[in-house]
Amino acid sequence: RLQVSNSPTNGQFLQCQSGATGGLTWATAGGGGYELLSATTCSSTASVALESMEAGYHYRLIGSNLSPASNNNDLFVQIGTSGPSYATSNYQYLVGGYLATSHTKETSTSASQFKLIGQGGGTSTGEQYFVDIHILNPALATGRTHLYGNVGGKAHDGNMIEQNFVGFRATAEANTAIKIYFASANIASGTVYYYRIADA
User: Fold this and answer.
1) In Å, how far are 70, 74, 95, 125, 166 from 99, measured between CA atoms?
2) Are strands 24-28 and 146-154 parallel, antiparallel or unpaired?
3) How does strand 187-198 pair with strand 177-182?
4) Which H or E element spans position 197?
5) Which residues neighbour 114 within 8 Å (Cβ) at sequence distance 6 or greater?
6) Are 23 and 42 spatial neighbours (Cβ–Cβ below 8 Å)?
7) How far apart are CA 189 and CA 129, in angstroms?
8) CB within 10 Å: which end of the chain, N or C, has fewer?
9) pTM, rounded to two decimals
């Protein structure tokens, strides 16, 4: 029968250790890459959420080929505490880049959600958005949750758009939930992936 010299916590693995009782101990992975937590293929999906974020990890949201069920719908993210209870105030963000050949930007210091891109998504062929958002240790209770990343694709007017995003919520709290959604329409199609990586 195997003996292990300590008790495990989430995310640990068994390793051989000559000085440990029974020669085995639980250890925390270090220097690893991103771990895939979920992959959701959308089909008339209201939102895609991850509601189990833990302290000690950075998270990543990747959305591929996202289209709304109705034309000209903005793309948003909200974060929340356990429950989940999603916050509806104190979001601050800046999103900016290019729409076709024109420089555009949009900012808010008192929004009810993070706006990821400055043009609404469309329903015509090829009008799809791609999202890559990093969420920095959101479940750390002593800090604000910061997000940054890139969003782009073809907007509802048929123009190509590429923008950078940065934002935070002006409240220090442990955020354990996040969701992505279109303003007033379901996600008609696309795939949403959530990943995490240890912060140490």
Assistant:
1) 21, 15, 12, 18, 18
2) unpaired
3) unpaired
4) strand 187-198
5) 76, 77, 78, 79, 91, 93, 147, 165, 167
6) no
7) 10
8) N
9) 0.85
Task: At 173, give phi and psi (nearest 5°).
Answer: -160, 165
Reply yes or no: is the peptide bond before residue 84 cis, omega within 30 of 0: yes
Q: Three-state DSSP class for 200?
A: coil
pLDDT tens-digit map of 89-115: 999 999 999 999 999 999 999 999 999
Residue 12 has pLDDT above 90, yes or no: no
The alpha carbon of residue 117 and the mean position of all alpha carbons in its chain are separated, in whole angstroms, by: 14
